[in-house]
Every structure is written in structure tokens, then in C-alpha cells.
Amino acid sequence: MNIELRQLRYFVTVAEELHFGRAAKRLHMTQPPLSQTILALEDMLGATLFDRNRRGVALTSAGEALLPEARRLLAQAGELPGIVKRAATGATGKLTLAFVSSADYSVLPPSLRAYRAAYPQVRITLLEATSDLQLEELLHGRVDAGLLIPPLPDKARAELDYLPVLTEPLILASPANLPELRGKHQASLAALAPLPLIIFPRAISPGLYDAILAVFRTAGITPVIGQEAIQMQTIVSLVSAGMGIALVPQSVSNLRRPGVEYRPLAHTTPLVETGLAWRRDNPSPVLKGFLDLMRKRL
């Protein structure tokens, strides 16, 4: 049994007018084909929808039961073009976004606020992951985009596009009240050389790891690596516990921990970049909307 929307529309019009002539006029048609359509609908449903007599037309109990459902179906059908258009333009759907922990203290919150304001009906799924894991997720199509720290390996560059979104210097995160830093606005690594360095493993973030060691090389110091940790929060917590010092992107100073002090370095530091990567062949309109917004914010 295939009921057509046209049949339901005719039925609702007759039910609202309770007069076949007025209903036909409202539908811009003649009465005989309207009556035939209602008879065919009744035959299809196996029930009489209208009592017809000389005094007029009235809904039967079956007709009264059908009327709200017919209106609901017609309303839903009327919404379909808008639903399809919103999906095609990226106004609805789902965005899966991965991010490195340092982005949580810099570009991620304002970007999400702006995107949520522009596309309130898009469902956002967030995944905190290191840059190496993000590349795997992107290459396998499990996330739409990732905020990560470059460089991208050759294999990834062949399939991914990349947009720089933030560059910032490295700063020192140190245990509070170190005698070597007392009264000093800037930190000299020479005074801190004996302290262990807490750092990311190179395998998960070679760009950040190499930038940190470059600062020590420029200062003529070989650091003693005391601990490795894969999350920025863990690194700062280890500093708070007095386990050593760390060089972190400047935005991480927004992460406050008791017992941690942040200072600019007296040495020239390379800029650490955070960027957005995505699959070049991802056709998602939702992703396109997110990328357009990010480009406008730069």
C-alpha cells in the first residue's frame, strides 16, 4: 500500500472544509477528481473516512483518527527541502575535531565558540590526541579535522591539506620560588641547567621536541631529560610537583597550577606552530563550513 502525499493533502482539505465543492475550489480543481481520489484512499485504507448525506459531509471515527497523522506527515514532508538544504550547506550534520592539548589553551575555545554561534545545529565531537595519533585518525577518515603541531610527514602531506592557525614562542614553566629565578622577569637556561627537563617524547611531537632542544643548543646547554609525558597537563603537573622544568608554548600559561611559575626566556626561541589538518578528499559540507570560518578568523 503506497499512500501519496497528494491523497493526504486532498483528505485534509476536505476534512477542514467538510464540503467537497469548497475543498475542490481551494485545491484549484474540479469536484469529480477530488471525490474519486478520496474514494480511492478509502478503498486503499479499507475504511470510510467521510459520512456523506444530503445535510453535508462529516468525518467518521476513522477519518478523525487519520486527520492528525495526515497533518503530521504533510508537515514533515514540507520540512524535507529545508532539511536537505541545511545538510547540503553544512548547517546541520556532525563535525569530529581532534586537538592537541596545547590548543585547549589557545585556539580551540574561541574557534568552537565562533563555530557554535554560526552553526548551532551541527553536532561537534571532540577528541584530544597527540599529533601522531591525529595523523592516523585523519588518514583513516575517522576525524574530519585536527588541530596539531607540524611538521606533517611525506605520507600525510600526500593526502592532507594544512592551514597554519597560530605561532607562538616557547616560555619556561618552572617550580615556584626557585632561588635561581627570584626577582627575575626573564629566565636564563644557564642558571637552570642542572634541573631535569620534562618534555614530550619526540615520536609523538617531533616539531615541538626539536624546537625545545634548539633553544638549549642556542644557549650552549645539553639538557638532562628527567621525564617524558604526552599531555601538556601532565607536564605542567610534574613541574608543579618539583620534578623539573619545561619549555611550553606561551598559551599554556593559561593553564594554572599551584606551584608553577611561567616566565619568558632570555634566549631567542623558535616559534611553535599549531595548524589545522584535514583530508583533501573529504567532501563534507560541515567540514567546509568549519574551514571557511577558520580562514576568516586568521
Write the SSE topology.
Elements: H1 5-17, H2 20-26, H3 31-45, E1 50-53, E2 56-59, H4 61-88, E3 93-99, H5 108-118, E4 122-128, H6 131-139, E5 145-148, H7 154-157, E6 160-168, E7 170-175, H8 189-192, E8 197-199, H9 206-218, E9 225-228, H10 232-240, E10 246-249, E11 260-264, E12 272-279, H11 285-297
Helix pairs in contact: 1-2, 1-3, 1-4
Overall geometry comes to rod-shaped
CATH architecture of the largest domain: 3-Layer(aba) Sandwich
Helix-strand makeup class: alpha/beta
Helix content: 40-55%
Largest sheet: 5 strands, mixed
Number of helices: 11
How many E-type strands? 12
CATH topology of the largest domain: D-Maltodextrin-Binding Protein, domain 2
User: Any idea how many domains?
Assistant: 3
As a percent range, the share of strand residues is 15-25%
Could you report the average pLDDT, rounded to the nearest whole number? 92
* Distance, first to last CA: 56 Å
CATH homologous superfamily of the largest domain?
Periplasmic binding protein-like II
Family: Belongs to the LysR transcriptional regulatory family.
Pfam families: HTH_1, LysR_substrate
Organism: Pseudoduganella flava
Keywords: DNA-binding, Transcription, Transcription regulation
